[in-house]
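User: Run a structure prediction on this.
Assistant: Running it now.
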Amino acid sequence: MRDQHAMLKRLLKTDLVRNLAAWLLALYMMGVRHTTRWERIGLEHAEPLWRSGRGLVWCYWHSRIMGAHATWPTDVQPCTMLTSPSRDGDITTAAIRHIKRGAIRGSATTKGRAKGSIADFRALIGVAKAGGCVGLTPDGPKGPRLVLKEGPVRIARSAGAPILVSAWSIKGSRVLDSWDRTVLPPLFGRGVIVFGPVIEPGDDLEATRLAVEQALNAVTWQADDLAGLPRVMPDAAAAA
């Protein structure tokens, strides 16, 4: 088993395998978008913001990456997603670009900032200021699960942009035993997308961070309840 794992890691380092994996991931995300029968809840929050043309920060938990493409329309503010700077993030970044979304490598945290992460944050602020959407998984890339980092709030406040939260869930999805409880949706399923109220960042960073975290958990649990999936709770150690 150890030899097989080592061989898989070696294969994933080859350009051919990584490119193939990115295309397969992109096809899967497009398949989820186009074959699912979607119900959308909370459009009264999202649609006025889409029509306004304002730049914004859009947040969804790391566990919902596979359905993020299905959530964001293609005819509203163009979306640039923040992806992990890790080696695995190479595949995700390539897949996102295959489905015609923008991608910037970085992390949702602002702690221990290096020159690269400062440049990433400035680039994301620029996207929002220019009227684009910045898509973030605010508990990624490594957790703690369902605990919002400060990065999204800092970006929104610096750009003068609102924050929109959303979650999706699909009946019959598989919930993996990973740190974030990644949700793998089936094709040709019945799903729901839930948008929460728009949050304007205030002067109190922690109050805004907590408000976004609570709103994001609320829409996630609502979506999972409607799709019949178990509720996933925030990382217990982090919450304590």
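The longest strand covers residues 163-170.
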